[in-house]
Amino acid sequence: MLRLPQLALTSEARPSVEVHVGGWLTAVARPRLVGGFAMAQVNGDWPEGESALAVTLPELYGTWQASDWFALSWGLQNFQWGPGELASPSNHLFHETGLLRDPLYLVQGRHLVRANLSSGREL
Fold first, then answer.
1. How many helices (DSSP H) and strands (DSSP E) are in the chain?
2. pLDDT tens-digit profile of 29-56?
3. Which residue from 14, 22, 36, 114 lies 20 to 30 Å from 72 (Cα-Cα)?
4. Angstrom distance (rounded) from CA 122 to CA 8
């Protein structure tokens, strides 16, 4: 009567695709693919199931490595402080903590321009 599914399958993939041009330019895409399938038994019969696919693009950016000590990134980025974010949430750009989140939780990237300075690749 209600056709509530007795069988449901859901799968998620989060690939990370990087394309390097020489040693100075990198393009990064991290799509999220979520697929699902559900079937309901009706009058003892299993009619054709329903399926769905959702694709989102939470991260898409490019990085220009100008030198060993300077890199510039632009695009949709999810830039977080790392594991320390759980203990001390001080990141004002992405105020998202991993506490009490399920594995399917997704933080959407934001349009950022980011400059990274480092002491060089040897350090």
1. 1, 6
2. 999 999 999 988 777 777 788 899 999 9
3. 14
4. 51
